[in-house]
Specification:
By secondary structure, the protein is an all-beta fold. It has no helices and ten strands. The strands form two sheets. Strands 1, 2, 3, 4, 5, 6, 7 and 8 form an eight-stranded antiparallel β-sheet that branches.
Amino acid sequence: MPHDWSRYWRSPDRPIEAMHAHFERHVYHRHSHETYSFGVTETGAQSFTCRGSAHTSAAGMVMTFNPDDPHDGHTTDTLGFTYRIVHIAPDLGPVSEVDQVGGSLPR
């Protein structure tokens, strides 16, 4: 029996959203966000593809995505992973291009 859960929060007056989740079976199919996205893996490990490369984010690692970066994601092993992510709209304020785990991902 899967033990997936998530908690979602959205600011009532600013373009900011956040999620705290644990997934053992959930799979994110290829998608993108219109926001800057900053995530941290708390436990376990998650694997994803972004800009044609495979990545793994293990406990304590940070993931960042620019607006409209297509990516997917899934647990790396059967133990699952727990992570937190925040999505910040570009019009909230100045945010420069962000770096991906392991180095810069130029547009």
